[in-house]
Design goal:
Helix content: 25-40%
Number of strands: 3
Strand order of the largest sheet: 2-1-3
Number of helices: 2
Amino acid sequence: MRRLFNEISTFLLGRKCYAVIVGERGSDRYDICSQIHFTKESAAAHRHRIEETRTYVYIATVTFRWKRK
């Protein structure tokens, strides 16, 4: 029953996607990463890779719906 509900909601609303927002260290500039993730785990793994760099700082993960046509 849950899978049926998920399939119907995906058809009507679109697929749930995640995007990571980062900021440059030492500036007020914020950007969205060029990768769109389709699973929360993939977005979390990308977040951990960003936190290891010295150039960027993690700001937030944005969730949105994407409907292909």
